[in-house]
Amino acid sequence: MKPHVLVAVNGFTEEHMERIRQALSGWASMERIDEETSESVFREKISRSHIIVGWPKAEWLAGSPVRLVQLGSVGYDAFLGNKHQDDPSFTLCNASGVMSVAVAEHLIAMMFALTRRISHHIRDMSKHSWSRQSEYEEVYGSTSCIVGVGGIGTEIARRLRLLGVRTIGVRREIGESHPYMDEMYPSSRMKEAVAKADHVILILPGNAQTEKLFDYKMFASMKKGAYFYNLARGSIVDENVLHAALISGRLKGAGLDVFEVEPLPMESPLWEMDNVIITPHSGGRSVKEFDRFCHLLLNNLMNYREGKPFLNQVNL
């Protein structure tokens, strides 16, 4: 029986879909549905599919014939902490690498906007106010600490090195030296690492181990006047503590793309802060995002057909 592929990715263009059709020609069938298709219809489609592309809910896959799930995101939080984790009936692959360049550029944009006070001047434009800030900083010669040295962390470090920034990396185990890091620390020494940095950049996955990892003690260990950036998951940061650190001056500013609750509630005090840049979980968005995602999918479809190891396979 031919495998059946269900594609639920609105961002794919007709050109992308034609490339997928050609890759499947002669060995698999395909159907495309809207990402926002109702649960009942989505689950009915899943019950007849062997490969799912998009963002299906983990519980929808129970008892289905699905053998491969190609997520359109790097995060796979929803697939943790359920029965699939202990005895998965399918292989899960994420989109690691697809958004790395975009997130790295988003981080650099936030860094310059904060240090050069661009966000203040944008606000001044609405008032036609010609007003210099009292202080403008340089990124050159500063020290950054990247907490989470995967594909995105590597792309960030690559760019910071070229900007003359000293880079410190934190990951679970140090292992071999990193080509773009001046120093590496294991997660057990994270407080020691962030204490050295002018810019602390959070790029960790969201899971039970990282929930509220950035709490009072972690922020208290940072250098006074440091900048903080979260382009990972809102669950990793205690937002009340973050707000207090910004109010007190412990942190000079923050660039935030993710939050505990999304969209960020209207009543959040973070909206009103001049030293905070807020973006709507858009760090990974790019005009090239779905080109890269399509390329990854095509590779994994061929690997499925030929029985080869998958790219970006997640170990549940």
TrEMBL record:
Keywords: NAD, Oxidoreductase. This is D-2-hydroxyacid dehydrogenase. Gene3D superfamilies: NAD(P)-binding Rossmann-like Domain. The keyword Oxidoreductase applies. Residues 108-283 form the D-isomer specific 2-hydroxyacid dehydrogenase NAD-binding domain. PROSITE patterns: D_2_HYDROXYACID_DH_3. PANTHER family: 2-HACID_DH_C DOMAIN-CONTAINING PROTEIN, D-ISOMER SPECIFIC 2-HYDROXYACID DEHYDROGENASE NAD-BINDING DOMAIN-CONTAINING PROTEIN. InterPro entries: D-isomer_DH_CS, D-isomer_DH_NAD-bd, NAD(P)-bd_dom_sf. SUPFAM superfamilies: Formate/glycerate dehydrogenase catalytic domain-like, NAD(P)-binding Rossmann-fold domains. The keyword NAD applies. CDD domains: 2-Hacid_dh_1.
